[in-house]
Amino acid sequence: MKEGIDLRSDTVTEPTQAMWEAMNNAVIGDDVFGEDKTVMSLESLAADILGKEAGLFVASGTMGNLLAVLCQTKPGDEAMVEKLAHIYYFERGMASIAGVTPVLLESDNGVVRPDHIRAQFRGASGHESKIALLCLENTHNLHGGTVSTVKEMEANYAFAKQNGMKIHVDGARLFNAAVALNVPAADLVRGADTVMVCLAKSLCAPVGSVLVGSVDLIKKARQWRSILGGGMRQAGIIAAAGVVALETMVERLAEDHANAKYLGQELSKIPGVTVNRELIHTNLVYGMLDPKLATPAEFEAKLQQYNVYCFAASQTEVRFATHKDVTHNQITEALGIMKKLFIH
Ligand SMILES: *Cc1c(COP(=O)(O)O)cnc(C)c1O
Predict the structure, then answer these.
(1) Do 232 and 264 fall within a single domain?
(2) Contact at 8 Å (CB) between 8 and 209?
(3) pTM for the complete prediction?
(4) Residue located nearest, by CA, to atom 8 of ligand 1
(5) What CATH number does the domain containing 332 carry?
Protein backbone atom coordinates (compact mmCIF):
# COMPACT_ATOMS: atom_id res chain seq x y z
CA MET A 1 0.00 0.00 0.00
CA LYS A 2 1.14 3.53 -0.68
CA GLU A 3 2.00 5.83 2.16
CA GLY A 4 -1.03 8.04 2.74
CA ILE A 5 -4.64 7.22 1.87
CA ASP A 6 -4.75 4.57 -0.81
CA LEU A 7 -8.23 4.24 -2.31
CA ARG A 8 -7.16 2.88 -5.71
CA SER A 9 -8.29 -0.66 -5.04
CA ASP A 10 -9.07 -3.17 -2.31
CA THR A 11 -6.17 -5.23 -3.69
CA VAL A 12 -3.72 -2.91 -1.89
CA THR A 13 -4.79 -4.18 1.53
CA GLU A 14 -2.10 -5.66 3.73
CA PRO A 15 -2.33 -8.92 5.68
CA THR A 16 -3.68 -8.71 9.23
CA GLN A 17 -1.60 -9.65 12.25
CA ALA A 18 -3.50 -12.95 12.43
CA MET A 19 -2.57 -13.63 8.80
CA TRP A 20 1.13 -12.98 9.44
CA GLU A 21 0.99 -15.37 12.38
CA ALA A 22 -0.83 -18.02 10.37
CA MET A 23 1.71 -17.69 7.56
CA ASN A 24 4.57 -17.94 10.02
CA ASN A 25 3.16 -21.10 11.58
CA ALA A 26 1.76 -22.74 8.43
CA VAL A 27 2.11 -26.49 8.00
CA ILE A 28 3.42 -26.87 4.47
CA GLY A 29 4.36 -29.47 1.90
CA ASP A 30 4.75 -29.78 -1.87
CA ASP A 31 1.31 -28.93 -3.20
CA VAL A 32 2.10 -30.27 -6.69
CA PHE A 33 2.54 -33.63 -4.95
CA GLY A 34 -0.72 -32.99 -3.10
CA GLU A 35 1.10 -32.75 0.22
CA ASP A 36 0.39 -29.24 1.45
CA LYS A 37 -2.14 -29.58 4.24
CA THR A 38 -2.78 -25.86 4.53
CA VAL A 39 -3.60 -25.55 0.84
CA MET A 40 -5.90 -28.55 1.13
CA SER A 41 -7.71 -27.09 4.10
CA LEU A 42 -8.15 -23.76 2.33
CA GLU A 43 -9.57 -25.55 -0.71
CA SER A 44 -12.06 -27.56 1.29
CA LEU A 45 -13.02 -24.55 3.44
CA ALA A 46 -13.79 -22.49 0.33
CA ALA A 47 -15.77 -25.36 -1.18
CA ASP A 48 -17.80 -25.74 2.04
CA ILE A 49 -18.55 -22.04 2.33
CA LEU A 50 -19.67 -21.86 -1.30
CA GLY A 51 -21.63 -25.11 -1.24
CA LYS A 52 -19.52 -26.97 -3.81
CA GLU A 53 -17.69 -30.31 -3.68
CA ALA A 54 -14.10 -29.22 -4.20
CA GLY A 55 -11.78 -26.25 -4.52
CA LEU A 56 -8.50 -25.32 -6.16
CA PHE A 57 -6.13 -22.64 -4.89
CA VAL A 58 -4.89 -20.51 -7.79
CA ALA A 59 -2.45 -17.65 -8.19
CA SER A 60 -5.03 -15.07 -9.20
CA GLY A 61 -8.63 -14.42 -10.07
CA THR A 62 -7.63 -14.24 -13.70
CA MET A 63 -6.24 -17.77 -13.54
CA GLY A 64 -9.34 -19.07 -11.74
CA ASN A 65 -11.62 -17.56 -14.37
CA LEU A 66 -9.52 -18.93 -17.22
CA LEU A 67 -9.54 -22.43 -15.70
CA ALA A 68 -13.34 -22.26 -15.43
CA VAL A 69 -13.54 -21.44 -19.14
CA LEU A 70 -10.99 -24.07 -20.16
CA CYS A 71 -12.80 -26.79 -18.19
CA GLN A 72 -16.26 -26.03 -19.55
CA THR A 73 -15.68 -25.23 -23.22
CA LYS A 74 -13.65 -26.36 -26.20
CA PRO A 75 -11.99 -24.18 -28.83
CA GLY A 76 -14.60 -22.79 -31.20
CA ASP A 77 -17.31 -22.59 -28.56
CA GLU A 78 -18.84 -19.33 -27.44
CA ALA A 79 -19.34 -17.96 -23.94
CA MET A 80 -21.80 -15.28 -22.89
CA VAL A 81 -20.34 -12.45 -20.84
CA GLU A 82 -21.63 -9.05 -19.82
CA LYS A 83 -19.94 -6.46 -22.00
CA LEU A 84 -17.98 -4.81 -19.16
CA ALA A 85 -17.23 -8.10 -17.40
CA HIS A 86 -13.71 -8.33 -16.01
CA ILE A 87 -13.23 -11.74 -17.64
CA TYR A 88 -13.75 -10.13 -21.05
CA TYR A 89 -12.73 -6.51 -20.60
CA PHE A 90 -9.44 -7.07 -18.75
CA GLU A 91 -8.44 -10.72 -18.89
CA ARG A 92 -8.48 -11.77 -22.56
CA GLY A 93 -7.55 -15.43 -21.96
CA MET A 94 -10.99 -16.63 -23.01
CA ALA A 95 -10.28 -15.80 -26.64
CA SER A 96 -6.50 -16.04 -26.76
CA ILE A 97 -5.92 -19.18 -24.71
CA ALA A 98 -9.22 -21.07 -24.56
CA GLY A 99 -10.18 -20.26 -28.17
CA VAL A 100 -13.64 -19.25 -27.03
CA THR A 101 -15.50 -16.34 -28.60
CA PRO A 102 -17.20 -14.01 -26.16
CA VAL A 103 -20.83 -13.11 -26.87
CA LEU A 104 -21.49 -9.78 -25.20
CA LEU A 105 -24.54 -9.18 -23.05
CA GLU A 106 -26.23 -5.97 -22.01
CA SER A 107 -27.25 -5.57 -18.37
CA ASP A 108 -29.02 -3.27 -15.94
CA ASN A 109 -25.97 -1.69 -14.28
CA GLY A 110 -24.20 -5.03 -14.17
CA VAL A 111 -27.27 -7.10 -13.34
CA VAL A 112 -27.82 -9.56 -16.19
CA ARG A 113 -31.36 -10.85 -16.72
CA PRO A 114 -32.74 -13.69 -18.87
CA ASP A 115 -33.99 -11.12 -21.42
CA HIS A 116 -30.42 -9.91 -21.94
CA ILE A 117 -29.30 -13.48 -22.55
CA ARG A 118 -32.24 -14.27 -24.83
CA ALA A 119 -31.45 -11.19 -26.93
CA GLN A 120 -28.05 -12.63 -27.89
CA PHE A 121 -29.16 -16.07 -28.94
CA ARG A 122 -28.44 -16.62 -32.63
CA GLY A 123 -30.95 -17.67 -35.23
CA ALA A 124 -30.67 -21.01 -37.03
CA SER A 125 -28.39 -19.81 -39.81
CA GLY A 126 -26.20 -22.88 -39.79
CA HIS A 127 -23.21 -20.77 -38.77
CA GLU A 128 -23.72 -20.59 -35.06
CA SER A 129 -21.33 -22.40 -32.79
CA LYS A 130 -22.19 -23.81 -29.41
CA ILE A 131 -22.83 -21.32 -26.63
CA ALA A 132 -21.25 -23.47 -23.97
CA LEU A 133 -20.95 -21.15 -21.00
CA LEU A 134 -22.61 -18.24 -19.25
CA CYS A 135 -20.34 -16.09 -17.07
CA LEU A 136 -21.86 -13.83 -14.41
CA GLU A 137 -20.00 -11.31 -12.28
CA ASN A 138 -21.19 -10.53 -8.74
CA THR A 139 -20.47 -7.91 -7.53
CA HIS A 140 -19.95 -6.25 -10.89
CA ASN A 141 -16.70 -4.31 -10.78
CA LEU A 142 -16.93 -1.89 -13.71
CA HIS A 143 -20.59 -1.16 -13.08
CA GLY A 144 -19.66 0.10 -9.62
CA GLY A 145 -19.63 -2.94 -7.35
CA THR A 146 -23.29 -3.56 -8.04
CA VAL A 147 -25.00 -6.59 -6.54
CA SER A 148 -27.18 -9.22 -8.20
CA THR A 149 -29.66 -10.76 -5.76
CA VAL A 150 -30.23 -14.47 -5.21
CA LYS A 151 -33.43 -14.23 -7.26
CA GLU A 152 -31.67 -12.45 -10.11
CA MET A 153 -28.87 -15.03 -10.17
CA GLU A 154 -31.35 -17.90 -10.10
CA ALA A 155 -33.37 -16.62 -13.02
CA ASN A 156 -30.19 -16.72 -15.11
CA TYR A 157 -29.17 -20.15 -13.82
CA ALA A 158 -32.56 -21.55 -14.84
CA PHE A 159 -32.37 -19.97 -18.27
CA ALA A 160 -28.81 -21.19 -18.88
CA LYS A 161 -29.65 -24.74 -17.82
CA GLN A 162 -32.69 -24.87 -20.08
CA ASN A 163 -30.44 -23.86 -22.94
CA GLY A 164 -27.60 -26.27 -22.29
CA MET A 165 -25.08 -23.78 -20.93
CA LYS A 166 -22.72 -24.27 -18.02
CA ILE A 167 -22.49 -21.39 -15.56
CA HIS A 168 -19.41 -19.73 -14.12
CA VAL A 169 -19.64 -17.01 -11.49
CA ASP A 170 -16.79 -14.53 -11.33
CA GLY A 171 -17.13 -13.84 -7.63
CA ALA A 172 -13.95 -11.83 -7.14
CA ARG A 173 -16.08 -9.83 -4.67
CA LEU A 174 -18.86 -12.35 -4.04
CA PHE A 175 -18.54 -11.91 -0.28
CA ASN A 176 -19.21 -8.20 -0.66
CA ALA A 177 -22.45 -9.13 -2.41
CA ALA A 178 -23.36 -11.64 0.29
CA VAL A 179 -22.74 -9.14 3.08
CA ALA A 180 -24.67 -6.38 1.27
CA LEU A 181 -27.64 -8.73 0.85
CA ASN A 182 -27.19 -10.35 4.25
CA VAL A 183 -27.34 -13.85 2.78
CA PRO A 184 -24.83 -16.73 2.90
CA ALA A 185 -22.51 -16.58 -0.13
CA ALA A 186 -23.54 -20.15 -1.01
CA ASP A 187 -27.11 -18.98 -1.64
CA LEU A 188 -25.89 -16.76 -4.46
CA VAL A 189 -24.14 -19.56 -6.34
CA ARG A 190 -26.30 -22.62 -5.73
CA GLY A 191 -27.07 -23.08 -9.43
CA ALA A 192 -23.56 -22.31 -10.67
CA ASP A 193 -21.17 -25.00 -11.92
CA THR A 194 -18.05 -23.07 -10.99
CA VAL A 195 -17.30 -20.06 -8.81
CA MET A 196 -14.10 -18.07 -8.42
CA VAL A 197 -13.55 -15.94 -5.31
CA CYS A 198 -10.60 -13.64 -4.63
CA LEU A 199 -8.84 -13.76 -1.27
CA ALA A 200 -6.52 -10.88 -2.07
CA LYS A 201 -9.09 -8.13 -2.55
CA SER A 202 -11.39 -6.98 0.22
CA LEU A 203 -10.60 -10.06 2.32
CA CYS A 204 -7.00 -8.81 2.62
CA ALA A 205 -4.95 -11.96 1.97
CA PRO A 206 -1.69 -11.17 0.17
CA VAL A 207 -2.12 -13.52 -2.81
CA GLY A 208 -4.55 -15.92 -4.36
CA SER A 209 -8.02 -16.96 -5.37
CA VAL A 210 -10.00 -20.18 -5.16
CA LEU A 211 -12.00 -21.90 -7.90
CA VAL A 212 -14.73 -24.24 -6.66
CA GLY A 213 -16.93 -26.79 -8.44
CA SER A 214 -17.55 -30.51 -8.67
CA VAL A 215 -14.82 -33.03 -7.85
CA ASP A 216 -14.49 -33.97 -11.53
CA LEU A 217 -14.28 -30.40 -12.70
CA ILE A 218 -11.67 -29.45 -10.12
CA LYS A 219 -9.59 -32.45 -11.15
CA LYS A 220 -9.61 -31.15 -14.69
CA ALA A 221 -8.87 -27.62 -13.47
CA ARG A 222 -5.83 -28.95 -11.60
CA GLN A 223 -4.51 -30.40 -14.86
CA TRP A 224 -5.05 -27.12 -16.68
CA ARG A 225 -3.45 -25.20 -13.82
CA SER A 226 -0.37 -27.35 -14.26
CA ILE A 227 -0.32 -26.65 -18.02
CA LEU A 228 -0.49 -22.91 -17.31
CA GLY A 229 2.43 -23.16 -14.88
CA GLY A 230 0.23 -22.57 -11.87
CA GLY A 231 1.53 -25.32 -9.56
CA MET A 232 2.89 -23.53 -6.52
CA ARG A 233 4.77 -26.03 -4.31
CA GLN A 234 4.86 -24.84 -0.64
CA ALA A 235 1.88 -22.61 -1.25
CA GLY A 236 0.60 -23.25 2.26
CA ILE A 237 2.54 -20.17 3.30
CA ILE A 238 0.12 -17.96 1.39
CA ALA A 239 -2.89 -20.27 1.69
CA ALA A 240 -2.64 -19.86 5.48
CA ALA A 241 -3.57 -16.20 5.08
CA GLY A 242 -6.43 -17.26 2.81
CA VAL A 243 -7.88 -19.43 5.56
CA VAL A 244 -7.83 -16.48 7.95
CA ALA A 245 -9.42 -14.34 5.22
CA LEU A 246 -12.37 -16.70 4.79
CA GLU A 247 -12.78 -17.33 8.49
CA THR A 248 -12.50 -13.81 9.86
CA MET A 249 -12.63 -11.11 7.21
CA VAL A 250 -16.08 -11.45 5.66
CA GLU A 251 -18.35 -9.79 8.20
CA ARG A 252 -16.27 -6.63 8.48
CA LEU A 253 -17.00 -5.84 4.81
CA ALA A 254 -20.13 -4.04 6.06
CA GLU A 255 -17.79 -1.31 7.36
CA ASP A 256 -16.27 -0.84 3.90
CA HIS A 257 -19.75 -0.58 2.43
CA ALA A 258 -20.78 2.10 4.93
CA ASN A 259 -17.56 4.01 4.19
CA ALA A 260 -18.25 3.81 0.45
CA LYS A 261 -21.74 5.26 0.90
CA TYR A 262 -20.28 8.10 2.95
CA LEU A 263 -17.54 8.73 0.39
CA GLY A 264 -20.08 8.77 -2.44
CA GLN A 265 -22.38 11.13 -0.60
CA GLU A 266 -19.63 13.66 0.11
CA LEU A 267 -17.94 13.30 -3.29
CA SER A 268 -21.22 14.16 -4.98
CA LYS A 269 -21.13 17.55 -3.26
CA ILE A 270 -18.20 18.63 -5.43
CA PRO A 271 -19.62 20.51 -8.42
CA GLY A 272 -18.52 18.75 -11.61
CA VAL A 273 -18.41 15.31 -10.01
CA THR A 274 -21.47 13.13 -10.60
CA VAL A 275 -21.95 10.11 -8.42
CA ASN A 276 -24.80 7.69 -8.99
CA ARG A 277 -25.27 6.97 -5.31
CA GLU A 278 -27.98 4.39 -5.87
CA LEU A 279 -25.36 2.17 -7.45
CA ILE A 280 -23.10 2.18 -4.40
CA HIS A 281 -24.13 -1.26 -3.18
CA THR A 282 -20.74 -2.33 -1.80
CA ASN A 283 -17.20 -0.92 -1.57
CA LEU A 284 -16.69 0.77 -4.94
CA VAL A 285 -17.46 4.39 -5.75
CA TYR A 286 -17.30 5.80 -9.26
CA GLY A 287 -17.31 9.54 -9.90
CA MET A 288 -18.06 10.87 -13.38
CA LEU A 289 -16.04 14.03 -14.01
CA ASP A 290 -17.09 17.08 -15.94
CA PRO A 291 -14.12 17.64 -18.30
CA LYS A 292 -14.15 21.30 -17.23
CA LEU A 293 -13.24 20.20 -13.72
CA ALA A 294 -10.50 17.70 -14.61
CA THR A 295 -9.86 14.58 -16.61
CA PRO A 296 -9.63 11.43 -14.50
CA ALA A 297 -5.86 11.38 -15.03
CA GLU A 298 -5.57 14.99 -13.86
CA PHE A 299 -7.81 14.31 -10.87
CA GLU A 300 -5.69 11.32 -9.91
CA ALA A 301 -2.44 13.26 -10.34
CA LYS A 302 -3.63 16.22 -8.25
CA LEU A 303 -4.71 14.00 -5.38
CA GLN A 304 -1.42 12.15 -5.50
CA GLN A 305 0.41 15.32 -4.53
CA TYR A 306 -1.39 15.05 -1.19
CA ASN A 307 -0.76 11.32 -0.81
CA VAL A 308 -4.35 10.46 -1.62
CA TYR A 309 -4.71 7.81 -4.29
CA CYS A 310 -7.66 7.04 -6.54
CA PHE A 311 -7.86 5.21 -9.84
CA ALA A 312 -8.56 6.84 -13.23
CA ALA A 313 -10.90 4.05 -14.31
CA SER A 314 -11.79 5.38 -17.77
CA GLN A 315 -11.71 8.54 -19.88
CA THR A 316 -14.58 9.92 -17.81
CA GLU A 317 -14.54 8.28 -14.40
CA VAL A 318 -12.42 8.00 -11.28
CA ARG A 319 -12.84 5.06 -8.93
CA PHE A 320 -12.42 4.78 -5.19
CA ALA A 321 -12.39 1.46 -3.36
CA THR A 322 -12.91 1.36 0.39
CA HIS A 323 -11.16 -1.37 2.38
CA LYS A 324 -9.71 -2.41 5.71
CA ASP A 325 -6.68 -0.14 5.52
CA VAL A 326 -8.58 3.13 5.10
CA THR A 327 -10.56 4.34 8.11
CA HIS A 328 -13.63 6.56 8.17
CA ASN A 329 -11.46 9.41 9.47
CA GLN A 330 -9.00 9.01 6.61
CA ILE A 331 -11.88 9.17 4.16
CA THR A 332 -12.99 12.42 5.79
CA GLU A 333 -9.44 13.69 5.42
CA ALA A 334 -9.28 12.64 1.74
CA LEU A 335 -12.62 14.33 1.08
CA GLY A 336 -11.35 17.52 2.72
CA ILE A 337 -8.40 17.54 0.34
CA MET A 338 -10.64 16.91 -2.67
CA LYS A 339 -13.00 19.69 -1.66
CA LYS A 340 -10.10 22.08 -1.21
CA LEU A 341 -8.63 21.17 -4.59
CA PHE A 342 -11.78 21.06 -6.67
CA ILE A 343 -14.34 23.43 -5.16
CA HIS A 344 -13.54 26.87 -6.49
C1 LIG B 1 -9.86 -8.40 -9.74
C2 LIG B 1 -10.89 -9.14 -10.50
C3 LIG B 1 -10.57 -10.32 -11.17
C4 LIG B 1 -9.16 -10.85 -11.32
O5 LIG B 1 -8.47 -11.06 -10.18
P6 LIG B 1 -6.85 -10.98 -10.17
O7 LIG B 1 -6.52 -11.68 -8.92
O8 LIG B 1 -6.51 -9.53 -10.19
O9 LIG B 1 -6.37 -11.71 -11.39
C10 LIG B 1 -11.60 -10.99 -11.78
N11 LIG B 1 -12.85 -10.52 -11.76
C12 LIG B 1 -13.19 -9.39 -11.14
C13 LIG B 1 -14.61 -8.96 -11.14
C14 LIG B 1 -12.22 -8.65 -10.50
O15 LIG B 1 -12.56 -7.51 -9.88
Answers:
(1) no
(2) no
(3) 0.96
(4) 61
(5) 3.90.1150.10
